[in-house]
Design brief:
The complex is a heterodimer of chains A (116) and B (114). Chain A has no helices and eleven strands. Chain A is mainly β and 116 residues long.
Chain lengths: 116, 114
């Protein structure tokens, strides 16, 4: 079965600093991985996804993530944090190995705080 | 814009009083999901439809039911809400089977049980 683990439930950075949110996965099949962002009282918005086409994936709002099979990781980064990046971030893996509809298995989430 | 729309955004219901949450989509996606997200937790899948085929998660309480009368609409029925059912309920869609397509989420309905 697939699973993801997000290291660090809270991350705090200064505006303009590097953002690094960590995600490690476990999968019995080649994984499809996603990062979603959730603002307070909102739904989830896709930031980016890995579907095996390229290991470095660029997403919206300046975010990117690198798939590293040897480390079973898919960490999310942004070179320079902006106040508007403050939100909850979820890493997810598709459970397509056991489900024919690719339902998402989410990590516990990381709250990103951006300090002025 | 094509999207996933949930109504209402906020719902207050009485303990034990049946409540229905609705979701509509203009994306014409085959798959529709209902997730429950409790405070400071990850979304947890309750069930999903692939077209008209209903798939219930093993640990979804019987108190939760769903209907999908057509491609565009899906409903979540909570037969007898308890205080523990207070949560954000998220509807999502995806275009097809398989794992490499992302889910598109609605804005969610925040359910309060009093």
């Amino acid at each position: 079965a697939q699973s993801v683990t997000q290291l660090g439930s809270h991350v705090s950075v200064s505006e303009g600093a590097l953002v690094l949110l960590r995600c490690n996965y476990s999968s019995s099949v080649p994984p499809y991985l996603f990062w979603y962002v959730q603002y307070p009282n909102q739904g989830l918005q896709l930031l980016l996804k890995y579907t095996s086409a390229a290991t470095l994936v660029k997403g919206i709002n300046g975010f990117e993530a690198e798939f590293k099979k040897s480390e079973t990781s898919f960490h999310l980064t942004k070179p320079s944090a902006h106040m508007s990046d403050a939100a909850e971030y979820f890493c997810a893996v598709s459970d397509y190995g056991s489900s024919n509809t690719g339902k998402l298995i989410f990590g516990q989430g990381t709250t990103l705080q951006v300090k002025p | 814009d094509a999207m996933v729309i949930q109504n209402p955004r906020y719902q207050v219901t009485q303990f034990g009083k049946p409540v229905t949450l609705s979701c509509s989509q203009t994306l014409n996606h085959n798959v529709m999901y209902w997730y429950q997200q409790k405070s400071s937790q990850a979304p947890k899948l309750l069930f999903h439809y692939y077209d008209k085929d209903f798939n219930n998660e093993a640990d979804t309480p019987d108190n939760f039911q769903s209907r999908r009368p057509n491609t565009s609409f899906c409903f979540l029925d909570i037969r007898s809400p308890g205080l523990g059912d207070a949560a954000m309920y998220l509807c999502a869609t995806s275009v097809q089977q398989g794992g490499n397509t992302e889910a598109f989420f609605g804005q969610g309905t925040r359910l309060t049980v009093v």
